[in-house]
Design goal:
With about 500 residues, the chain is of the alpha+beta class. Helix content is about 30%, strand content about 25%. It has 3 domains: about 240 residues, Immunoglobulin-like (Sandwich), CATH 2.60.40; about 90 residues, 2-Layer Sandwich (Zincin-like), CATH 3.30.2010; about 140 residues, Orthogonal Bundle (Neutral Protease, domain 2), CATH 1.10.390.10. The N terminus is likely disordered. The chain binds zinc ion.
């Protein structure tokens, strides 16, 4: 599978002995052309385990000119390396070549205009799912001042043109005239900016939008440095938005808003009636919110549900009036974005956890007589029954922690990880008590926020935190094709 190819490379990076970083070092004064073997060795060593070595990415988008500029800062500069970025996960033959068109790559080294860098663009086809993916490989030059005891920060600047992909599925930037938005999950960030598509990698991001059309407002985290989210969290939406304030959390101090399009006010008010208090519940029960002082729901004109683009997550107009969907997307600030998923198999760590947390939050802050609150588990049960009686694959945690990215979440996207995950956590809460489970989810968040984690990591943590071993219950709910006969973990 396409993703598999990428991940095999990353696994190799993780197991490579880091000691060769120093041992294999060659005289940096020599031309890089003289030592291709050294470059190959160091390319293996530069991944430094599960974290990206791209420490920050500053993105600028000209939304009229459809051009972008990214400044990629690399700490502990891996001199004489290839900086590999994904560009254009086109995903369908009709989109081949409609990803990014790279226009310039240079090193910002203080010289006027920067120093142009050599780069190549490779494409590959995965016949199993028929996409064409492209990768930009930039030759980062040897730094004559390199000193492993005093590492440099390099800034590589890439500029590109991005395309409007209206009329195609959700793979990049969409300009509807009266509004526009981005949609890049799960691996189409490369249609919007050069990125590392794996959800396990996080960087510090900042964004600026230029040339927003007159009469429209751009909703994105302007002036906020986003702390280590996965690349699919980045997004913007532009339209004739009205901002409806919902209040400020106590004591977190986060301002929660809803941003609606013309005609959307009634649905926005209905859907967000519990949002501020639920957000406050997450802050107070799980931990500090990581993605800025202002957050909220943004109505968008696609029909694909919700997308956890924190701090301004997107909701389709059809889901805007749903208190459940509004709270669900907000909860990804803690699981999915705050704690990233390690492998695509760990999707349940994001969606199962968030589906459970949504129910708990609505029950904690909502009106008990409101069907949105009182019937949430009934709705989840209907969803579980529906997806179980459908023809889709039934395992919520494919591989069960034994594989990583052998599974394509985009090609296997169903309600199974959402609903089996939610009922697993509910069964666990019935066994250990809801406060104990929420406490464990909080301590796991504090321990892992800003990093990637697998579902097995969470299970291990729950066992240590609650003294209950959830293995059997997790096997039955998450690794089995059936639904267990019990709703309390044994
Ligand atoms: Zn979700």
């Amino acid at each position: 599978m396409r993703v598999e190819i990428v991940r095999i490379g990353l696994l190799f990076v993780m197991v490579a002995p880091l000691a060769c970083q120093v041992d294999e070092r060659v005289d940096p004064q020599r031309s890089r052309r003289d030592r291709p073997e050294a470059a190959a060795v160091r390319q293996v060593a530069m991944g430094l385990g599960a974290e990206s070595w791209i420490k920050s990415i500053n993105l600028e988008f000209d939304v009229v000119g459809r051009s972008g500029t990214g400044a990629y800062s690399i700490d502990n500069a891996p001199w004489d390396q290839l900086l590999d970025l994904d560009i254009g996960g086109a995903g369908a033959t009709d989109l081949d070549g409609v990803g990014l068109n790279i226009t310039s790559v240079k090193l910002l080294d203080g010289t006027p205009g920067g120093t142009p860098l050599l780069y190549t663009i490779a494409s590959w086809l995965d016949p199993s799912i028929a996409p064409v993916f492209r990768r930009l490989s930039i030759e980062v030059p040897a730094d004559p001042a390199y000193d492993e005891y005093n590492p440099q920060t390099l800034v590589v600047q890439v500029t590109w043109i991005f395309a409007d992909q209206s009329g195609t599925p959700l793979r990049g930037f969409y300009d509807l005239g009266t509004s526009s938005y981005t949609y890049t999950w799960p691996y189409y960030c490369g249609n919007l900016f050069p990125c590392t598509m794996s959800p396990r990698f996080g960087s510090l991001y900042s964004m600026t939008l230029r040339n927003v059309p007159a009469g429209q407002t751009a909703i994105y985290p302007e002036g906020v440095v986003l702390g280590d989210p996965p690349s699919y969290m980045l997004a913007f939406a532009i339209g004739a938005y009205t901002t409806e304030p919902l209040g400020t959390t106590v004591p977190g101090g986060t301002t929660v808003n809803v941003y609606y399009l013309p005609g959307g006010k009634d649905d926005a008010i209905k859907g967000t009636k519990y949002l501020k208090n639920a957000f406050q519940y997450f802050e107070n029960s799980l931990g500090t919110y990581r993605f800025g002082p202002t957050a909220g729901t943004v109505q968008v004109a696609h029909s694909a549900g919700g997308m956890e683009h924190h701090p301004f997550w997107h909701l389709s107009s059809i889901y805007l009036p749903s208190p459940e969907m509004n709270v669900h997307e907000s909860a990804h600030g803690w699981y999915g974005n705050g704690v990233r998923i390690q492998c695509q198999e760990d999707f349940v760590l994001s969606e199962g956890t968030v589906s459970y947390l949504t129910a708990v939050a609505l029950e904690a802050v909502g009106d008990a007589s409101d069907p949105w609150v009182s019937k949430i588990w009934d709705r989840y049960k209907t969803r579980l029954d529906n997806v179980m009686s459908s023809g889709v694959a039934k395992i919520a945690w494919p591989g069960g922690g034994t594989t990583c990215d052998q599974y394509d979440v985009g090609a296997n996207f169903t309600d199974i990880p959402y609903m089996k995950g939610a009922f697993f956590f509910r069964a666990l809460a019935k066994r250990v008590g809801t406060p104990a489970l929420i406490s464990a989810l909080s301590s796991f968040y504090w321990a892992r926020v800003g990093t990637a984690a697998g579902m097995q990591d969470l299970l291990d943590h729950i066992k240590a935190a609650t003294l209950y071993d959830p293995t059997t219950c997790a096997n039955d709910w998450l690794k089995s094709i059936s639904v267990p006969a019990y709703d309390t973990c044994p």
